[in-house]
Amino acid sequence: MASKMASCIFCKIVKGDIPCFKLFESEKTLAFLDINPLSRGHALVIPKYHGEKLTDIPDDSLVELLPVAKKLALATGATEYNILQNNGRGAHQEVDHVHVHMIPKPNPEEGLGIRWPQQKTDMDTLKALYEEIKSKM
Predict the structure, then answer these.
(1) With contact defined as beta carbons under 8 Å apart, do 81 and 102 qualify?
(2) What reaction is this protein's catalytic activity (predicted)?
């Protein structure tokens, strides 16, 4: 874990080894402008605790992520925006440290583009899935 943290760009930003355009900081959370923005105001909110995926982060280190993303949306004046959090390469995660994107969507050309490949299902299949997931909650 220590070696992953040592090479993690977001951990280096948290420590101050790499500069950022810091928008918010608390004991457990840091928010800054994305250096490869999809639109004006695209920002990242990260827990200071290092973990690759959402399931690697303790709950108490996650509690500020959405409230800070909300503050960023308000501060940028974005009326349409996406809040995005990816886990794993197949899910488009590029940096192996949990982060939430707040991406303003000012027009069709800027911001996040999404495909929504709906899958066919039926009530019996959904009921079985519901029972499986519910039993593990």
Answers:
(1) yes
(2) adenosine 5'-phosphoramidate + H2O = NH4(+) + AMP
User: Exactly one of 42, 50, 97, 99 is catalytic; which is it?
Assistant: 99
Return d(Cα 94, Cα 40) in angstroms, integer.
20
Predicted TM-score (pTM) of the model is 0.91
CA 14 from centre of chain: 16
pLDDT tens digits, residue range 73-132?
999 999 999 999 999 999 999 999 999 999 999 999 999 999 899 999 999 999 999 999
- Euclidean distance between CA atoms 96 and 3, whole angstroms: 13
Tell me if residue 50 is catalytic. Answer: no
Asked whether the beta carbons of 115 and 61 are under 8 A apart, the reply is no
Architecture of the CATH domain 2-136: 2-Layer Sandwich (3.30)
Q: What percent of the chain has pLDDT over 70?
A: 98
